[in-house]
Design brief:
By secondary structure, this protein is mainly beta. The protein is built from one helix and 14 strands; from the N terminus they run E-E-E-H-E-E-E-E-E-E-E-E-E-E-E. It comes from Aspergillus campestris (strain IBT 28561).
């Protein structure tokens, strides 16, 4: 199972903040969604499973110990920021042609009570071709060392704008969705590209920022 205690991270982008998180060894990586995986999805969309609340008869409706551990580590990674709450964890399984079109994780609702402040995109299973995570509004780094983790003009990344992270099991991308004033970063526009062969499994860890409302 992936944990956030045996990882390394590299600063990938500063404004907005992007960190690339990777495990020194992912040989023993496995994903915790096998008992609750739903039937195969339709070609155009991923199947999703909430890890906190498995939708099967007689399963517990409270988060399991591994889920609670992941939630604590996600909060710790961000410095236990005040008014930041980790949302229920969601796993996504993409079969062949499964994808998710370009979108924002934030909704522009921070001023009205809360919004999704940060995102972890964790790759749990990479037995696939394609399926990268594309950020068309980011500038690809010059250093070739990053080509281990991003597409550099070959394969899926050829002809694509911006940056496409490869779905490597045990690795993750973390980014800030909101500016200090609560507005969203347009650079976080992203998509899950189509899987062309095999299956990709990912895990979304979203953080919801909701400060107390001021009483006038």
């Amino acid at each position: 199972m992936i944990t956030l205690n045996t990882i390394l991270s590299s600063l990938f982008y500063l404004l907005p903040l992007y960190l690339f998180v990777f495990a020194p060894s992912s040989a023993n990586t496995s994903h915790p969604t096998t008992p609750t995986q739903p039937p195969p999805p339709s070609p155009s969309t991923p199947s999703t499973t909430p890890l906190s609340f498995p939708r099967l008869p007689n399963w517990p409706t409270t988060p399991t110990a591994p889920v609670r551990c992941l939630t604590r580590r996600a909060a710790s990674f961000q410095g236990w920021r005040p008014y930041l709450h980790i949302e229920p964890l969601w796993a996504q399984r993409y079969n062949v042609s499964g994808h998710y079109t370009h979108h924002y994780d934030w909704a522009g609702s921070a001023a009205r009570g809360g919004d999704r402040a940060t995102t972890f995109m964790v790759y749990l299973d990479d037995g696939c071709k394609g399926g990268g995570t594309n950020f068309p509004r980011l500038v690809r780094p010059v250093a070739r060392e990053w080509c281990r983790f991003i597409e550099c003009g070959e394969g899926e990344g050829e002809g694509m704008d911006g940056i496409t992270f490869k779905p490597i099991a045990g690795n993750a991308v973390f980014w800030e969705n909101l500016r200090p004033d609560g507005s969203g970063y347009p650079e976080t526009w992203h998509a899950a590209l189509p899987v062309t062969e095999g299956v990709k499994v990912g895990l979304n860890i979203w953080s919801w920022y909701q400060p107390p409302r001021r009483r006038g």
